[in-house]
Write a structure and sequence with these properties.
It is built from ten helices and ten strands. It is an alpha/beta fold. It is globular, with a radius of gyration of 19 Å. The structure holds iron/sulfur cluster. Iron/sulfur cluster binds next to loops.
Length: 320
């Protein structure tokens, strides 16, 4: 984390890119500033301004342009906050914002404007969150998300796990994380031991968008998790010029499976302010989905979904 690139000029020099040929933001006042670990940058092709991994993290001048339909709260997270640090949108599931920080800043992130206020829930908030979960027996599953829950130290994670395991009506635990993709070193033997020994059945949902992100280091880490009976799923976001082709998505699914990960969701972009240049129109997304169905076995085709504020679940997009 300490050696991650946070300075744009440094990143561009490292990748041998000429800043005068790029559409970069004017000034550097954006609080959602550049952040990308060196290991992830090492997967990018030097000299290529269109590298699909670079496009996900490189701030763009286009982010400042307001677009109709794009805003700071695209999926109604603010309205779903039951107590500070917990989002309760869907029946049976509640999501804890376990940390406000991430190892990487993805330019299309739907929570890029979310007011985390310094990030990690305070001990007082923990108590409120646990109190809320205990008081609602309809909640069967808790999702640790953020930000990224793996930004927490193992001891802190272990405390969360122990507290959650003590709630009798909880049946499952889920972790949503992109951190292993950009810092595979985070998957230490200790973390694997911790996750595989949990009292509640646990699913780890990774966020990999492009096959080039599945580095040997990541694949080796996820295979170890898989061998230790940790269920691994993947959710990707459909992003223009990054993964919006049949070939890329097919390869992604195949490489995920080889790494012990099952494709779960392919999300349409959440329309967050600053991300319009990543949007793939819905008809095009459906066409791609049909192409995947024709190419892959069913278990390797992720569900194509979009999130509509106020709906009782993610909305699946059929093939029509
Ligand atoms: S890692 Fe996830 S939460 Fe963090 S910036 Fe990227 S998409 Fe957003």
């Amino acid at each position: 984390m300490k050696t991650a690139f946070t300075d744009l000029d440094e990143l561009l020099a490292f990748l041998e890119l000429d800043k005068n040929r790029l559409n970069l933001p004017i000034g550097n006042s954006d609080p959602f500033s550049l952040r990308v670990p060196r290991g992830f940058v090492a997967l990018m092709k030097p000299g290529d301004p269109n590298d699909p991994l670079l496009l996900q993290v490189l701030p763009s001048g286009r982010e400042a342009i307001a677009q109709p339909g794009f805003n700071n709260n695209p999926v109604g997270d603010l309205e779903s906050q039951s107590v500070p640090g917990i989002l309760h949108k869907y029946h049976g599931r509640a999501l804890i914002l376990a940390s406000g920080a991430c190892a990487v800043h993805c330019r299309y992130c739907f929570r890029r404007h979310y007011p985390y206020h310094g990030g990690t829930a305070s001990p007082r908030q923990w108590q409120d969150i646990l109190g809320y979960l205990k008081a609602d027996p309809s909640i069967r599953e808790v999702i640790l998300s953020g930000g990224d829950p793996l930004m927490l130290q193992d001891e802190r994670l272990a405390e969360w796990f122990a507290n959650l395991a003590g709630i009798p009506h909880l049946q499952r635990l889920r972790l949503h994380t992109r951190l292993p993709v950009v810092l595979p070193e985070r998957i230490t033997p200790h973390l694997i031991e911790l996750l595989s020994g949990l009292a509640l059945p646990t699913v780890v949902v990774l966020h990999v968008n492009h096959p080039n992100e599945l580095s040997p280091a990541l694949t080796s880490a996820t295979r170890k998790m898989h061998r230790n009976n940790i269920t691994l799923l993947n959710q990707a976001v459909l992003l223009k010029d990054v993964n919006d082709s049949r070939e890329t998505l097919t390869t992604l699914s195949e490489k995920l499976f080889a790494a012990g990960i099952l494709p779960y969701y392919l999300h349409l972009l959440d329309r967050v302010q600053g991300s319009a240049h990543f949007e793939v129109p819905e008809p095009e997304a459906r066409k791609l989905y049909r192409a995947l169905l024709a190419k892959l076995p069913g278990y390797l085709v992720p569900k194509l979904v979009k999130e509509i504020t106020g709906q009782t679940s993610k909305t699946p997009l059929g093939i029509s």
